[in-house]
Amino acid sequence: MTKSIKFAAVICAAAVFVGPVAAQEFPERGIELIAGYGPGGGHDTMLRNMARVLSEQGLIEVPLNVVNKDGGSSGVAMGYLNGLAGDGHYLMSVTSSHITTPLNTDLPLNYSSFTPIARLGIDPEVLVVNPNGEFNSMEAILGADRMLNVGGTATGSIEHIVTVLLAQEAGIELNYIPFDGDGEVVAALLSNQVAFAITNPGPVADFIETGDLVALAISTEARIAGYPDLPTFREQGVDIVLSLFRGVTAPADISPETEAWLINLMTELNENEAWRTEYLEPNSIVQDFLTGDEFEAYLAETQGVYTTVLTNLGLID
Questions:
Q1: Averaged over 270-294, what is the pLDDT?
Q2: pLDDT tens, 53-68?
Q3: SS3 annotation, 270-305
């Protein structure tokens, strides 16, 4: 064998050896989990549970650190992540504000400014009533001959959008009243200040269990395990399928190998029993997993729906 042939053989062998090692270099350090809201909120709760389950179940060896970058309805966190392009050691929690904040503000970013990793679940919207109120059934609501007041959170929120879609689909007049938080929404409904409320199950689960409130419809495509007797909007002739999603995204321009590693990590989390029993179920999150391109397509579709409704509301141009 000539020297040149021997040298080429050594180079090829080295390339074969180095390839897998290089693929395993990520992560080189701990991973930072970024919550776009303060401690105790939905973003923070999801990420802290994620960090605990991944570590306790041995799904990751490097440290995980939750950092709160609250402000601007997740706009501050989006700006922070945008400055970390190319570095996959960061994951940011995302929900509907990932779509609505760029639409409602002059933030020069949107979901396509980042690398979608995974949708981990959906937080559906439910229509709840006071059983002692005048409009305590879907039949009564859909047949209302006057404008009804509806409670929810901020103007332009998913609760507001579902209310608008309900009015359009059912041909009824609804006046959306935004409250500062879920607690105020529940209080208004319990005192019959509003005919019904649109909210996710978490804030009203205890009241539904005691019978103080009654859920009449849910915004998922099919009934969910947590509320098997609760019919969907579609089952009742109202074509609404729209839920708050919960997922994670990474900075732009990360390598395909890093993206694949992060997607695999989230896939292992999704398949872990502790994640389901210790986070999803206690927080009434429906396990509905999407990754990569499928998650990106979902974000694009969701942005289309939000854009149409918010434009019709006159909230965006």
A1: 93
A2: 999 999 999 999 999 9
A3: HCCHHHHHHHHCCCCCEEEEEEHHHHHHHHHHHHHH
> Using CA of residue 85, residue 261, residue 95, residue 74, what is the dihedral sign?
negative
Domain parsing of the chain, residue ranges: 31-123+243-312, 126-236
**CATH code at 126-236:** 3.40.190.10
- The structure's pTM equals 0.77
Measure CA of the first residue to CA of the last residue in the chain; give whole Å.
73
What angle (nearest 5°) sits at the alpha carbon of residue 183, between those of residues 181 and 186? 115
CA dihedral 88→94→99→103, nearest 10 degrees, is: -80
Q: Which CATH class for the 31-123+243-312 domain?
A: alpha beta
Cβ contact 35:47 at 8 Å: yes
SS3 141: helix
DSSP 249-264: EE-TT--HHHHHHHHH
Please provide residue 83's backbone torsions phi and psi, each rounded to the nearest 5 degrees: -80, 0
Asked if residues 135 and 141 have their Cβ atoms less than 8 Å apart, the reply is: yes
CB atoms within 10 A of CB 203: 18
Average pLDDT over residues 153-178: 91
Same fold, 31-123+243-312 and 126-236: yes
Mean per-residue pLDDT of the chain? 89
Residue 202 near residue 95, CB atoms below 8 Å: no
Please name which of 76, 81, 74, 115 lies closest in space to residue 98, comparing C-alpha atoms: 74
Give the helix/strand (H/E) hosting 245: strand 243-250
Instruction: Give the Cα separation of 124 and 218 in Å (integer).
Output: 7
pLDDT per position as a tens digit, 189-238: 999 999 999 998 888 988 999 999 999 999 999 998 889 999 999 999 99
Cα separation of 45 and 38, whole Å?
A: 10
Residue that is written with structure tokens 């979608």 in the block: 116
